[in-house]
Amino acid sequence: MKYGVVIVTYNRLELLKECIENCIRQTIPFEKIIIVNNCSTDGTDEYLQQYKADMRFVISEQTENLGGAGGFRVGLELAGKEDLDWVLIIDDDAMIAEDYIQKCDRVIRRYPNVVACSGTVYTDGKIQTIHRRVIANRTLYLEKNVPLSAYERKCFRYDLATFCGLMVRADILAKIGLPKSEYFIWYDDTEFSMRLRKYGGIVNVNAAHLNHKTVLPSGEQKGFFMRMGWRTYYGHRNRLDAVKTHCSKVTQLVIYAEFMVFIACGAGMCLIPKYHRQGKYITRMLWDAWMDGKAGRLGKNKKYVPN
User: Glycosyltransferase 2-like domain spans which residues (predicted)?
Assistant: First the structure.
């Protein structure tokens, strides 16, 4: 088996260094390590110069931040041009254990019909179930995290993965196509997983471990609506687009109704003085997400970008 890895990075040089080292130390080596630099400004481009003469590495420098969706599309397109059997997909903050590929390889060889697999994601020593989900109700399109009890087995099959340690068979990648770069951020991995479901879904190899070096929320958490920010626009818009592509008309109507409820809640917040500003923002943002999702207006929206 010939394995490759796609790493997308943006302004996290120290994490990227560790991520690359973990890839290099694999007990089953990668044939290709493909790094997509999403126009970082922290010295990442200078650091990556040292790898350009190494035949194992493919370095792709972008002239603008394409978002995770665009970055993974570029990386997987490059992977498709290489002689690879499987491609691992990770961000720069995903630290795979040195035997990650070895653990997956054992399952892949034992079950040759598997089209995609993944490992167990940990943060601060705890399993993060949000990265491995099932569609609990297809009509209502309700997603549910795979329960912790499933991780006590050797493997489990599931529907929806994040790009945190997902590995795809190269021939299946050629069939289902690349991630939607027009999503910019959020839900590109879920929509990609929905395509994989048509070929049998994904198998999680529980013994393959990945340390996701992200910061978990701590202390008192804000309410659901108070947490909504610019990223929420892409999450809701892209979710609607994915449902339109992969689900029934009935499910689309359910999602439309969900939008109406959320927009009504935002409008209600406007009536409360201390929540007026956030309510006004939520109402406009969700309305834009609904209208753009319905019309298929995707890509980066200049109204919803980091400050």
Answer: 5-143
36: closest CA among 75, 80, 77, 82? 75
Write out the H or E segment, with its range, that includes residue 16: helix 13-24
For the CA atoms of the chain, what is the radius of gyration? 20
Phi/psi at 153 (nearest 5 deg)? -85, 175
Neighbours of 155 (CB within 10 A): 17
One-letter amino acid for residue 22 of the chain: N
Q: What does DSSP say about strands 57-61 and 32-37: parallel, antiparallel, or unpaired? A: parallel
Q: Do residues 160 and 134 touch, judged by C-beta distance below 8 A?
A: yes
pLDDT in tens, 123-177: 999 999 999 999 999 999 999 999 999 999 999 999 999 999 999 999 999 999 9
Q: Does domain 3-212 have CATH number 3.40.50.970?
A: no
Dihedral (CA of 231, 235, 240, 245) sign: positive
Other Cβ atoms closer than 10 A to 83: 9
d(CA 23, CA 149): 29
Amino acid at 248: S
CA dihedral for 287, 293, 295, 299, sign (positive or negative): positive
Instruction: Count the residues in the chain.
Output: 307
pTM above 0.90, yes or no: yes
Task: Give the 3-state secondary structure percentages of the chain, helix then strand then coil, rounded to 5.
Answer: 45, 20, 35
Give residue limits of the domains in the chain. Answer: 3-212, 230-295
- Tokens in use for 257? 């109704």
